[in-house]
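Reply to dn_fold:

You asked what the input looked like. This is it:
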Amino acid sequence: MKTTKFTAAICTHLGGPKQVRLETIEAGPLQKNEVLIDVKAAALNFPDLLMTYGKYQFKPSLPFVVGMEGAGVITAIGRPDCPFQMGDKVMFKGKTGACGYMICVDMDQVLHLPKSLTFEEGAAFSVTFSTAYIALRRRARLKPGEYLLVLGAGGGVGQASIAVGKALGATVIAAASSDEKLEIAKASGADYLIRYDENRFAETVLRITHGQGAGVILDPVGGDLLEESVRSLAWQGRLLTVGFASGSFGHVPLDLLREKGATLVGVRAGEYGRRNPAAGLSAQSELAALTEKHGLKPYIGKSWHFDEVGKALLAMEKRQVTGKQIIKMGDAGD
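and this is what came back:
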């Protein structure tokens, strides 16, 4: 492939969303294990914001293209036996690079776009729904009929976890900090709703579960909520720590965790597939089947124009938006 120039949203210095700007860069040569994608839409996740400050666990070298996931059309393939063809509509994920008009992606990180999803929905699907599925099915072994408590229910991972949890047969309790966010949870299938900014939610969880607690808890928030999550666990429950949107990991009362015979489980869905590609691919295949069967969809909170990536990240930082934030590269709704 000849060297090609394209426009992308670049983080030039650490210091937050204000350091993100549009620049013209060159695409590197297409490798044999890669496909070239004409990006139609990208989605933002909380780690994208953290990376602009250098506070995420993965710290890309500066400058870097913002964005972990997107959707588009394949325009070149690296080898003839590639499972994709020119013109295929796909969705992709990675560590960075989505917020640009072009991207070269390892084909293991690319999936065909389900017919039920638009480019915008596909862009918002891969990271959060993969995280939810790997966390709930592969790490927690969530069983049909179990109580699942999802914190941060109005965020991308929270909303995806509610939808996946319901599809796996769980009774889902959604917890969030506002009625607006709980409406997202309700629309995604949550059975019970809790405002955790109004009271200590462990008592409510125990009441809902008839005193037994939640068998699985998914926590993408951390901070003060983490200790309350431990108090909400059932005997031999599994507490999935997925992120720390609050800004801190929080404190785990190990004595209480031991008393409940419970397990604290760290989740890094991207690393799960990178360290074991076969397991990652099989999980993606299972998720694709679940998506088709149950019509899983992300909740899109707001769509932004390509030149508004920095504004979208700033809105995330100020908690001014809910659901997934989409970056449109032209007409992405086709």
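The first helix runs from residue 46 to 51.
Hope that clears it up.
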